[in-house]
Amino acid sequence: NAEYMGEEARHTTMAHKMTPIPIVDSSHADFVHDVSFDHYGMRMATCSSDQRVRIWDKMHSGEWKKMDEWKAHLGPVWKVVWAHPEFGQLIATCSFDNSAVVWEEVVEGGRKNMGQNKRVWKKRVRLVDSKGSVLDVKFSPKHLGLKLATCDAEGVVRVYEAMDIMNVSYWPLQEELPTKLKQCTSLDWNPSRLDAPMVVVGGEKSDSDSVYIKIFEYNDSTKKWALLLNLGDADGPTDVVRDVAWAPNLGRTYHLIAAASEDRNVYLWRLRLGGDHAKPSADLLCKFSDHKAKVWRVHWNVTATILASSGDDGSVITWRCGPNNVWEKDSEMRKPDQI
Description:
Blueprint: H1 2-18, E1 32-37, E2 43-48, E3 52-58, E4 64-71, E5 77-82, E6 90-95, E7 100-108, E8 118-127, E9 134-139, E10 147-152, E11 156-161, E12 173-178, E13 183-189, E14 198-204, E15 213-219, E16 224-231, E17 241-246, E18 255-261, E19 266-272, E20 281-288, E21 295-300, E22 306-311, E23 315-321, E24 327-334
Antiparallel strand pairs: 1-2, 2-3, 3-4, 5-6, 6-7, 7-8, 9-10, 10-11, 11-12, 13-14, 14-15, 15-16, 17-18, 18-19, 19-20, 21-22, 22-23, 23-24
């Protein structure tokens, strides 16, 4: 009943307020560009302009302990992402040095040194097809197998696949997509297993186009990727899109896609893919203008009921879908010495 729900919400809010937030000293020597958690939220990877990647494990005390670190690239490392644990302990990184790299954690030692076994990260493959800085990298949802998508400063998206998941040193290039964007800054996969493989790509529009975000779909008949839809050609971003996030779909008849832009806004679209004969369509659900500077990241919770965004104003803002299916600002966290 309403009384019970109100009481439950009150206790949830109190617990939320009383939960301490651990502060992690990354010890990186330069800007930290990305922080990524594994599937269970118990492992964390960070990457930085110092060209290094660090791996952290969460202890029983709640403290994050650094387990490993290494020089991963010859330039700033922009992104780090975990594969689904079904494929083992794999991460991928991308960098200003025009490459993406897949790393695997292995156990060194053996039966003779069972008491001295050590987990170490090994480079399995370096993907060097890009002619520009590789700005984002994402593993596909697990139902699509072990695939990896990258996008770069030349406006090209590439899709790779490990044909044999027991051999993660071999990632042949499956597709190269010229997006007609001046540069591609971010991408994300459609997580739904009910649809054809799709990716949403954001970036900087070309001089001959007004679109900052595009959706591409894989056609099983032609075995090719093709443009499915432009997002926000009339009411979308007016500056570079720095991040896109495709929401998990838990039974909705439509999809949600969020974008963070340098125009200081967060955008949220409702995407309907339609049936066999219906054309896909998208409408802008919300445009959030609460940030006071460029917005760099957007991220969904696992049920797609909360969207988080962060920007150059030093704030993290969360947005929640209310009971009337209306999206509203839920909370704002701001670093004390910011603004």
